[in-house]
Each structure stands twice: as structure tokens, then as C-alpha cells.
Amino acid sequence: MLLLLVLCRVMRPRFLRPRSGLSGAGWIPELPIIKCMQKKQLLVISILLVLAAVAIYAYREYNRTNKDLASVEADYTVEATALVNEFLANDTAAYNKYRNKILAVQGMVKSVDKVEGDCTIVLGDTTEMSSSVRCLVDSVQAKNAIVLKRGERITVKGAITGFKKDDTGLLGSDVELNRCVMGSSK
């Protein structure tokens, strides 16, 4: 509102203005009205202000980055097999428990997969083809993940992104973590 007043050069509003045709107390209060701008000018300025606000919002969202999980403290520390069993028992309750939380998952490396520049560490029981925890590694940490060997015990920190349940019982279910960083080897 202040911007419109300045644009209209209404620096001295007239709150009291004589009313013609009245005798005696002919002064009535009158609010300042923007008279100097035409409707088209007001519309153009309003559209420009909205476009500027949208541009600023879009720029901030485009350049927004995720937190580096290497420096973030984990909300929960769990074993990979215990995490999978918790999701198998009640996936809705487990997802609600771990949603928007950072997990430190400890377990044995089943495999390390590199597909189209993405590196995924699969944690779980190495003796059978059962359910596992699939950790999509952050691109900065991918070089460190490539050198992992099957059976090595590690801790991976990441954010839960989903659970793929296997209803057939043939392939095993997977808990998925995203933006993973490698912790200490144990």
C-alpha cells in the first residue's frame, strides 16, 4: 500500500475536505483515494510484482540443496535385518515411525550395484536371497562405495524413501534409503 502511495505521489493526503452545499459544519472526514493512477497502470504494476515474487520463489527452489547427511546425527540406529523384519511385520507403523527421520543402518554388504552413475549398496543377510535394505549412495560418496566387498560389515546413514513388499515370497522385500553416506566399518 505504501508503494502505491509513493507511486501516486500522494505525499499529503487530505483527510478533511469541505463539502459543498452545506451550511455550518460542512467538514466531513474523507479517506485518501488514489486518483493519479489509471487502472491499466495499477494492473501492470500488480502483475510485475506478482511475477517478481514468483521468479524469486522459483530461483530459491531451483537452487535449494539437501542437507549433507555426513554431518547430521542419526535419529535411529538399527540393524538391517531388524529394520526389514519391522517393515515385514507392519509396514504402515514402521513407515510412520521412520518417516522424515535419518537412520543409521548397520549390516553386512550383500552387493554393490552401479547403474548409470548411481551406486546402490545392498545390506542384509548374505547367506540367502532374502529381504534387504537398498541404500542409494550420495554421488559424493560413490567412489568410497565401489570398493566395498561382499560380507563386509558397515554402517550406512540415509533417509527412508519406501518399502517394496514382495507378496509372492520369491524375491524378498526391500527397504529403500536415499542420499546415503557411509559411516564407520565394524
UniProtKB/TrEMBL annotation:
Annotated transmembrane regions: 42-59
Pfam family, one: tRNA_anti-like
Keyword Transmembrane helix included in the entry's annotation: yes
Family matches, as InterPro entries: Protein_unknown_function_OB (IPR024422)
Keywords in alphabetical order: Membrane, Transmembrane, Transmembrane helix
Protein's UniProt name: tRNA_anti-like
Organism of this sequence: Paraflavitalea soli
Taxonomic placement: Bacteria, Pseudomonadati, Bacteroidota, Chitinophagia, Chitinophagales
